[in-house]
Amino acid sequence: MRLLRGLLSLVFCLAALTVHAAHTQATLVLSDDTAKPGDTVWAGVDLKMDPDWHTYWKNSGEAGMPTAISWHLPTGITAGDIQWPLPYKFPPIEVTTYGYTNETMLLVPLKIGAHVPPGQLTLNAEVTWLECKEVCIPVQTSVQTTLNIGSETETSANAARIDSWKTKVPQANGFGFSSEAWWNGPASNDTRSLTIVWWLGVPAASAAPLADVDFYPDASDNYEIQPATKVLSACTVNVRVQKAVKNFSGDWPNDISGVIVTTGNNGSRNGFALSMPIEDHAPSVHDPFRDGAISASAQTNAVAALGPASTNKAVTTSPAQSLALKLLEAFVGGLILNVMPCVLPVIALKILGFVSEARSEPRRVRNLGFIYALGVSASFSVLAAVFIGLKAGGRHIGWGMQFGSPVFVVCLTTLVMLVALNLFGIFEITPGGRVMNAAGELASKHGAPGAFFNGFLATALATPCTAAFLAGALGFAFTQSAAIIFLILLFVGIGLAAPYVLLSCNPSLLKFLPKPGPWMEKFKMAMGFPMLMTVVWLFNVASSDYGSRVLWLGIFLVIVAFAAWIFGEFVQRGSHGRGIGLAVTVLLLIGGYAYALDDHLHWREMAAENTAGNSLIDTSANGVAWKPWTPEAVTQARADGKPVLVDFTATWCVTCNAIVKPALETKAVVDAIQELDATALLGDYTRTPQQMTDEISKYGGAGVPLVLVFPKNPEAPAIVVPQPDPLELPSSYSRKVLNALEQAGQ
Description:
The protein is α+β, with helices and mostly antiparallel strands. The chain is 39% helix and 23% strand. The chain contains 20 helices and 24 strands. The strands form 5 sheets. The chain has a 7-stranded mixed sheet. It has a 5-stranded mixed sheet with strand order 5-10-11-2-12. A 5-stranded mixed sheet has the order 20-22-21-23-24, with helices on both faces.
């Protein structure tokens, strides 16, 4: 096919020798007449073609040549990539090409450097294209325009036209929609069948049938996606097509990119740019949005078509509505985190802070509430940046995955223990305190630093908990673009901080709190016990990292506690020997780190028995014969006609261990598993293995807990057991599991 493309291009060029007049007019326009240093100005190369003539898209297809722009710009101005409007597919099918008729505008962002001096600049570009009718003519022309650099931005008369053409550029992956691709089996000679699925995360009731769908691939030298398209499903919230891929050289591609093109019954065309890996087989877990669980009646009776009739206009309403729904879920999930066990110790500190500040000036109370919210938001922003970086590195990401790092667990355990010791009064807050009392001072101090640090601590302790609504929002976020990930995590943080901001902005709501007095010191000490419980829980998490070596973490914590006592007793409260006390404190900390953490715990390394894929969770509890989860184990059990119960869990997941685990160990659930002869598989997510993260994210989950029940019918989709509510009892959750098992056995 590449040979055919080359021969056709040669024929076109030879034919062009007898033709002289160009049939396409090119002009260069800008979105702004005047721009400031640091601005981005949109340039548009407008191509107007004579009737019946056409030019080509970035992938011209089996013949033709993409339009090219070569810029000649003043120093300090750089041009970005071309943004291509949605093209058309030109017949005949034997030599399919992609391109434009009548008019198109190729958009390019121009970045103005921060040090570009004021004045008028001339922008030049050479534009090369191939224009075709019965014959094809290669054309090259120069276009130019001027741009003023000044102190204020002034839009041009062409700004509206450029904005209109922006709406005709296919929307990028991550704008409220998702996509997947997988091979349909082994290759037949040099051709292999590929399925591509695109879907919106919106209810099926919003579906409407489409007049046509297609997939326009990006170009590749190693393979060709053939133009014929087999449509498997076509509605406004779910598209599934099959394409044939012809391989020219090397291995089969591992990923694919291109544009899903939808045509509504009113003729409106919409484009969605996709870029995704190609899986070896279809997903094993059912997703109602991806798999098109939409009845014919729902499609027939849908109330809305895809969009307005303006040609090429991209859809914005459904993705925006979907994003708005996920942002609401994120906010509500953040609210619910306030009553999850993970965050309760920090809530105790906030109660103490409200009591202390209840009689303060309203402005101070309000400011402290906003500073706490700033601490939460800043922490979630850092968390989002970490997730975005990991995703950019090719990893699937999951909520709570930082607890898979033993270094993180040790640092957080030490920090929370210092907070507890400060609340017990082992060391106090003094103006002269520096390193030793920093964490405790921040945690119990009721000023701006304390409020900000409590926001950080709330975020750190919230991450192993997954609340209702939160799993869906995070699962959606982790499959989207960096901007969506950041936005949804920010809304989780806003939800987590919202109750305290509300109380801070309405001091009258604090009148029910008792007046500050001596009782507060006892209350403060009492609040140290929830923190101490958190230390015990974190120590248990660390035991899954280090095995028998975790003893040395305990020794290190005792040394730190002893150093904190010396610091408080002799440095802060003592009248003599403060220098010696400080020296002993420093020596204890250095010695404890070197001897216990570095030399014996080897705190940067997991125990050997925990790096070989062994489960870190007891698999023999209460008669459930758990086996390790693998995709192959699920496939084999279903092939044997057995229902399958899968529990994705982790030692650091509070909800998993406080609600889900006891629910699965109730006698009723155990009896049901045995009666159905079901296979019970345990997915140990403690170390956040990539294969398990991939499986959870395929289903749309963000982390653990996740309980799936596969029916004995191997063709039936998996049943997901809903996330437990924050205060749900194990007996209540066990009924949900029993209902799923009952359905699976039918």
